[in-house]
Predict the structure.
Amino acid sequence: MKDINIEHWIERMKEGDSSAFQVIYDWSFPEIYRSVVFLMTEKNEIEDVMNEIYFQLWRSIGNYDANRPFRFWMHGIVLKQIQKWRTKSWRRFRIFEKKRLLEREEHLFSDRRILEAETHQEMLTMVHQLSYKLRAVIILRYYHEYTFDEIAELLDIPVGTVKSRHHAALGKLRELSPYLESAKEQELYVH
Amino acid sequence: MSIEQQLRDKLQDCAEAMENPSDMQKRIQEASYERYRNEKNNETSKSNLNIRMVACVLAVVLLAPIIIYTGPTVAAQIRTLLNLSGTEDARNFVTKDADSDYVITNLYADEISGNKTAQEVLARIYSGFPETKNFDIANAQITKGIRAGEKIHIFNIILMEKGKTFAEPHQEIVVNADVDTGQIHFVQTIGLEPYAAHAAKLQKSEAIAIANAFLKQLDVPIDGYEAEMTGAHGDEAQGIGQPIVTYKRAEDGKKLFQVNLQDGGMSVAFSPSEKS
């Protein structure tokens, strides 16, 4: 994600400059898309969620506080919309349907067009085998490089909970992956 | 290499290996932008509607003495006037013509909380209609200047049922009051008790009873006034079929305020000499 003078484009967007939408959209799309692919296991729903994310992003952008990083604010919207979708999804499906859906989660991303290499597919499959709560912490920590405090703020949970989820996620990943090396216990808490 | 570093590297590689779905990217851009623009347009329309409504209510207040004599209900006037194209969606808008020069200013929340008249009006509304405590302030404005040669300084507020829009059935109360004296010029309620579902079918005694109850809730004393009904069963030409109850001072027969009963709503306009 290349750096651009986002405040400038936000100002232009607020003034109704449609080219500013285009710039912000093109700049943010790859990162948002990748985040959503990492966080969501249902490929068929990604477009709907992306639609919702961008709609919320456009309507909230006027409230963006320029004193804070735009990416952080943007990821907050992404997580909120995915959480909203998950809540809706849970309501939509009856328990047994939900169970069935979860059972076939790992096959939903078998479409190779989404990834270029098998090893990457394996990585994605492995991440998707984590529960959403653990997965979100791993993605925010190791893909977006957020601190535990920032993750706690983004997920609106205590820092202690973030750390325990992080610990549990690493443990689960070690079980799942033959090629991820085990690490010393003290390395689990990287700040 | 630690597990953390491996995760960083592999997630980064994995992300970079993802194809950017250009078709989806285009669809989402168009869909989300269009949806946003639609919502923005709707908001603007709603905002313009609010402004027009308050402007029209003001017009009605000024016309109140005329209305008392000419008959059509205040609500009917408002609804008719709402169909006219109106003012701009802005913080202030100025009206100037041969005998008018006034500014209407949209108020921010902190200006409402810091305005004595606004707080008095809200306290009175909440006291008479406790359910409105949960309502949103849909619009609040102050109008100041000269209109039709008369100096005015008026506070207008619309409280609306939380979560509703003007476009759908909702409960609402509109109040106009003098900023300097706090006197109320006009009140209109929609969907708030008391009201008649079919106002035109009311008998005189029923219409007066509802009008009295409405005034009681607004804490308007009616002792010493004589209520008289026109409209549905009175002068059809005046009331477009819906009842109007006028209150005259018993001692000299002077009309002082007028309650209009509409289906599902009520309003009262005070004559200039007798603001509540």
